[in-house]
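Changelog note: in this version the structure field was regenerated for every chain. One regenerated record is shown below for reference.
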Amino acid sequence: MLSVELQLLLLILIANGAPIMATALCGAWGSRPMDGGRVLADGHRLLGDSKTWRGLLLAPLASGVAAVLLGLPTMVGAVIGLAAMLGDLLSSFSKRRLGMAASSMAFGLDQIPEVLLPLLAVSVRFDLAWSAMVWMVAGFIMLELALSRLLYWLGIRKQPY
């Protein structure tokens, strides 16, 4: 049996991977950008083309189903999925404000909100200590970077980070 920390980390990986897998499987089908193409006063898009309604909907769904398979409540998985996507949107918004290109790599900024927001969202329910969350963030960063390279090698991702 996996520890609760490993279960949560797995759910976060699934939530963050769901939009990537959806793009690989569905292509452009259902990939409507959340920002509708809006450009802010700084001349940059609000979020960019890769932040879609499909991803926002699939992440909580995928992590909710995975939670049930792990013996956790569906709502825990759905909350993790939604919080992971909110972290991803925060990262994307911040990168656009910094003038970074869509899908460009920003070490830390690309990973920390995507793992920390879900952990904070369920920290009280699972009585997660700060030290455990720090290790989980570090573990997520390492796993996400390794899996990203693997998915690039398999032709699923467009960038190898």
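Spot check on this record: The mean pLDDT is 93. The CA atoms of residues 148 and 161 lie 5 Å apart.
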